[in-house]
Amino acid sequence: MSLGGVAAATAIPMILINVSGGVLADTYEAKYLLGGSSLIGALLLAVLGVLTMTETVEPWHVFAIEIFSGFVAGADQPSRQALFPSLVTQSAIKSAVTLNGSLLASASVVAPTLGGLLIAATGLHIGFFVAAIGWVAMFVVTLFLPVRGTFSTTLSVIADLGTGFSFIRSH
To answer: Tell me: the pLDDT tens digits for 129-155?
Structure first.
């Protein structure tokens, strides 16, 4: 199986859905979109865990799951970004974004290290199941987020997309 092919299977849908994911995050309450994407991510990882545990996983399973993961990530990322202004005060946004970036950078080193140790000790399927549990935990956390502020109730997705592209062009 090609690692580049799997990466493309994730990246292409993520790029395609990212702009419309931003519109969704602006139209609906981002914490619910984030919660939904967390549940779908958990389900995809659990499916991959079961397929691995039963030794029935095929390359096409991995590609299909990664395509769906790309769509989920494309909606998930804008939802996360849309939450910042409603979780922290305007004066704390810069610090919150900096802290978030530091935590993500740290997690990108620590999580694979711990995951590798877990997989070596228990098996690949356990790694997928633990990751799925992490996504479920994220879902539970999002339910209790004390979100302040409002979200747009506009019904024109096309107009919102146009506004988004205009903003990108002007910056």
So the answer is: 999 999 999 999 988 887 765 555 555
Name the domain count of the chain: 1
d(C-alpha 47, C-alpha 42), whole Å: 9
Residue 70 backbone dihedrals phi, psi, to 5 degrees: -65, -40
Burial (0-12, 13-18, 19+ Cβ within 10 Å), 147: middle
Cα separation, 152 vs 171, in Å, equals 22
d(C-alpha 120, C-alpha 82), whole Å:
37
Which residue range forms the structural domain that includes residue 35?
3-170
Confirm if 42 and 96 have CB atoms less than 8 A apart.
Answer: no
Which residue shows structure tokens 């549940």?
39
Q: What is the mean predicted confidence (pLDDT) over 6-22?
A: 85
Q: What is the CATH number of the domain that holds 145?
A: 1.20.1250.20
Q: Write the CB contacts of 79 (distance below 8 Å, at least 6 apart in sequence).
A: 21, 24, 25, 30, 31, 33, 34, 37
Cβ-contact 9, 67 below 8 angstroms:
yes
